[in-house]
Automatic annotation (TrEMBL):
Species of the source: Caldovatus sediminis
Top-level taxon in the UniProt lineage: Bacteria
Name of this protein: Luciferase-like domain-containing protein
UniProt KW keywords: Flavoprotein, FMN, Monooxygenase, Oxidoreductase
Gene3D superfamilies tied to this protein: Luciferase-like domain
Length: 299
C-alpha cells in the first residue's frame, strides 16, 4: 500500500518555506505522495446567506496545484504529487494536458492526476465553462488528455473538442499520466471502470458500505473487460480521532478491503472525517510523524 499526506495549507499557510519544510519532512518520513485539493474561485460567504460553512469560500487558501507542485518538484527527489481533486471540466482540456505534461517532466514522472466534476457553479461561471454538462464533458476531456500525452501529433473530433494534427511538447516521460477520479455516484464509478486508473473514495467510513462500493466498482471494471486489480482505490484517514491502535485497526480494515492508497488528511472535516485540533506547522508535522510510525509495519 502507498501512504500519502495532504498539505494542510488552510492551517499552516502557503509560504514557500512552509511548503518546502512540510514536503521535505514528509519525504524524509517515507511518505509516498503529497496531495493538494483544487479551487480557483472562492465565494464571498458574507453575500450569500445560508452558504454551507463546510464549503470552500474566499477565506480558504488554495494554491494552484500545478504551480505548487512545480515548486515542490525542485525541493524533493522521491515523493510523488497528486491532485485530489482537480476540477477538470471548469478548465480548458488542452491547457490541462500541457500543464500536467510539463509538471510530469519536471518531477521525473512523479505526478498523478486526480480529477472531479466539481460542485461550485460560481467557479464555472467565472471560468466561462458550462456547469450543466460537466459530467458528460469530462468523459471526452479524459479521452483528449490521454491522446495528447501519448502521441506527438493528434487529430481529435469530438462533441466539445477539435484538434487538427497538433500536439504537446514536452510529452510526459511515460507517454501517460495516471488519471484517478473522485466522486461517489454510479456514473463516476462507470467512468472509472472505462477510463480510470483509480478511485479516490471519501464518503464511506470503514465498514460494509465501503466494501459494497468497492465491489460495485470492481463489477463495472470487469464489465469493461478490464482487470479490477489494475484499478486502484484510495481513502483518506486522519489522526483527528482515536490513537495509534485505532489508526492501525482502521488501516488493517482498508488493507483487507483492497485499498491500494491511503492519504493522511488532518485538516478535512466532512463526512465521517475528523480534523485535528492543532493548526500550527509543528502540530501537523508531529501528527504526520506519529501516523507514519503507527502504521509503517502494515504498509
Amino acid at each position: 500500500m502507498k501512504l500519502g499526506v495532504a498539505l494542510p495549507l488552510g492551517d499552516v499557510g502557503g509560504e514557500p518555506g512552509t511548503l518546502r519544510e512540510f514536503a521535505q519532512a514528509a519525504e524524509a518520513e517515507g511518505y509516498d505522495d503529497l496531495m493538494l485539493p483544487d479551487h480557483v474561485l472562492g465565494v464571498n460567504a458574507a453575500s450569500r446567506p445560508g452558504w454551507d460553512p463546510a464549503r470552500a469560500t474566499s477565506a480558504n487558501l488554495f494554491h494552484d496545484p500545478f504551480v505548487a507542485f512545480g515548486f515542490l518538484a525542485a525541493c524533493t527527489t522521491r515523493i510523488g504529487f497528486s491532485t485530489q481533486v482537480l476540477v477538470l471540466p471548469q478548465r480548458q482540456t488542452v491547457l490541462v494536458a500541457k500543464q500536467a505534461a510539463c509538471l510530469d517532466v519536471l518531477c521525473h514522472g512523479r505526478f498523478r492526476l486526480g480529477i472531479g466534476v466539481g460542485w461550485n457553479e460560481v467557479e464555472f461561471a467565472g471560468l466561462n465553462e458550462d456547469f450543466r454538462n460537466r459530467g458528460r464533458r469530462s468523459e471526452e476531456q479524459v479521452q483528449v488528455l490521454r491522446a495528447l500525452w501519448a502521441e506527438p501529433h493528434v487529430t481529435f473530433r469530438g462533441r466539445w473538442h477539435r484538434i487538427e494534427d497538433a500536439g504537446l511538447n514536452p510529452l510526459p516521460p511515460r507517454r501517460r499520466i495516471p488519471i484517478w477520479f473522485g466522486g461517489h455516484v454510479d456514473a463516476t464509478l462507470r467512468r472509472i471502470a472505462k477510463w480510470g486508473d483509480g478511485w479516490m473514495m471519501l464518503a464511506h467510513p470503514p465498514g460494509e458500505e465501503a466494501r459494497r462500493a468497492f465491489d460495485t466498482l470492481r463489477r463495472h471494471v470487469e464489465a469493461e473487460g478490464r482487470d479490477p486489480a489494475s484499478v486502484g482505490i484510495e481513502v483518506w484517514v486522519s489522526t483527528g480521532s482515536g490513537a495509534e491502535e485505532d489508526w492501525r485497526e482502521e488501516f488493517r480494515f482498508w488493507k483487507s478491503a483492497g485499498v491500494t492508497h491511503v492519504t493522511l488528511n488532518n485538516s478535512y472535516g466532512r463526512y465521517h472525517h475528523r480534523r485535528i485540533a492543532g493548526r500550527s506547522l509543528v502540530e501537523h508535522l508531529d501528527a504526520m510523524r506519529r501516523y507514519r510510525a503507527a502504521v509503517a509495519d502494515l504498509l
